[in-house]
Amino acid sequence: MAQNVVLYNLLISCPGDVQGEVKLIEDAVGEFNELYTKPLGITIQTRHWSKSSYAQSGGKPQALLNEQFVSECDAAVAIFWTRFGTPTDEYGSGTEEEIEIMLQSGKQVFMYFSEKSCPPSQVDDEGYKRVRAFREKYKDKGVYFTYSTDEEFRKLFLAHLSMYFLSDKRVKDIASERCSGLKLLGIDENGKLSEDVSIYQFRPNTNITMEEYMDSIRAIYQEIAGIKVGRRTSIPAGLFLYQPVDINEEEKEFITSIAKILELELPEDFFDLGNLSKNPLSSDFLTGPRLEGSADEIRKYEKIQELQETISDALKWARVEEAFSDKRCIKLAIQNCGKAIDEDVEITVEIPQKSLLTLDEFPQFSNKTMGYLLNECAMDVLFGISSTAEYLEYSESQKNSSPYYRSSSHGLPGIIPDYSGDFKAELDDIFCYSIYPSGDNYILKLKVDYIKHNTSVAFPSVLFLTDEITGIPYKITSKSNPDIVEGTLKIQVDAI
Fold first, then answer.
1. Pairing of strands 471-477, 485-493
2. Using an 8 Å Cβ cutoff, are 449 and 399 in contact?
3. Angle between helical axes of 420-430 and 367-376 (0-180°, round to 10)
4. Would you call 184 exposed, middle or buried from its count of C-beta atoms within 10 A (0-12, 13-18, 19+)?
5. Is 47 exposed, middle or buried (0-12, 13-18, 19+ CB in 10 A)?
6. Other CB atoms closer than 10 Å to residue 130's CB: what's the count?
7. Rounded-to-integer distance, Cα 105 and Cα 117, Å
8. For the segment 333-380, what is each residue's pLDDT rounded down to a tens digit?
9. Which ranges of 338-419 would DSSP assign to H, the alpha helix?
10. pLDDT tens, residue by residue, 3-41
11. What is this structure's pTM?
12. Contact in structure between 259 and 297 (CB atoms under 8 Å)
């Protein structure tokens, strides 16, 4: 899992005669990161022209370096020995220009002058004079230190680095930057996040509603009525093995009764299939005997089968839709509007007992309907809150977010199993809130494993209400935020 880390860029600026110290700086920064990145979330990245610059045309070399990485650094370490460096258009050397840019921006500069011995033959007299003059310039400003050995420099620099980046103010600033900004939001009927909570009629997340089922059934009735194939005449000679295909009386009665309910008048030839027959000698394991007849005869038969299946699906769905026809609900989401990720988030909301529909009060279904919901419907989709461009679904915030597959016992052939146990377990998985009675209220708790900054995560499911509420008090605790976030969501009742 990713960590909340505040990154600082440290500029290394020095003339060409200072090389060993560059390695010492890298080692000191590595030691600092090893000590403090994990516990405090602080990490330092070094920037140096040798590794941070790239070939670029269209400007002066130093100006290009300034643009590429110098200006974005948070602090700098500058070291002088015997050389001052190559002059730029505005300053005595590139190092001096980088120092001045940092100081003028109010940024920290760690400045050091080496007093290590050097063979006279390697000393640039003119360069060394410029170094001493530059040192004299900053003598009374207390911004530089001297050293005589590599070990002295390493210890000195690590101490200064630690004192600056671990100051009380900076640690507090870092802690503030590492904090998330959590709050509870509502989701309106259009799937938009809102500062208020909307209460509206529950509509299952399904591909087709009862109204759409009825429209589809009416359309199939009309399509069948429009296919004219005539009555059966006789089976052609040589086809004595073929069996005529008809719609049996029970199926006719079923289809006719539904037509009456829908106030549809069926033509006399509605069930006529012409000379349609089936060939038992060309039977397929999946589809059965092959149909023999004209294209219209086959199409009419298949449409009648589709009609029966659609009516059967509609009747099964009708029991579910009816059970929730009077149910109202709310949808909630948690948002991290802070600058850091957060983990181990626990949300607590308070709802009056008289207003919340718990699983113990969930609509009761027959064993057959429970089997239908378990085996033919995605219950987590029906009652869940799917992701949108504004928020993630709950499973995407969980560390163990692999899909859950429940195995249902099908029992012996011809025997319908008892689905009640599996049905209850499935509801517990979907409505995965811990609920505790507290006086006249219920306390609901929900855990979110992980939420990125500038991200919102929906609750795992809708919450059903049985009575009006005026507001939803909440508390949020988390790993990255030492404070308890408290608030109350206002209720906006939508017109239904």
1. antiparallel
2. yes
3. 50
4. buried
5. buried
6. 18
7. 34
8. 999 987 778 889 999 999 999 999 999 999 999 999 999 999 999 999
9. 367-376, 379-383
10. 567 788 898 888 888 888 889 999 999 999 998 887 777
11. 0.63
12. no
Q: Which residues pair with 109 in a beta bridge?
A: 76
Distance CA(50)–CA(95), nearest Å, equals: 14
Distance CA 274, CA 100 (A): 97
Question: Is 3.40.50 the CATH number for 6-178?
Answer: yes
Please tell me the distance from the alpha carbon of residue 13 to that of residue 106, in angstroms, as a whole number: 17
Tokens of 144: 């530089």
- For the domain made up of 182-203+326-493, give the CATH fold: Immunoglobulin-like (2.60.40)
Task: For residue 415, give every residue at least 6 positions away whose Cβ sits within 8 Å of its Cβ, in sequence order, or none.
Answer: none
Task: Name the one residue in this structure whose structure tokens are 């980046």.
Answer: 165
- Please tell me if the domain spanning 6-178 has the same topology as the one spanning 182-203+326-493: no
Q: Is 359 helix (H, G, I), strand (E, B) or coil?
A: helix
**438 CB-contact burial (10 Å; exposed 0-12 / middle 13-18 / buried 19+):** exposed
Tokens of 42: 């602080």
Sheet harboring 277-284: ordered strands across? Answer: 243-244, 277-284, 288-292
- Give me the DSSP letters along 459-474: -SB-EEESS--SEEEE
- Grouping H, G, I as helix, E, B as strand and the rest as coil, residue 321 is helix
| In the chain, where the domains are located | 6-178, 182-203+326-493, 210-323
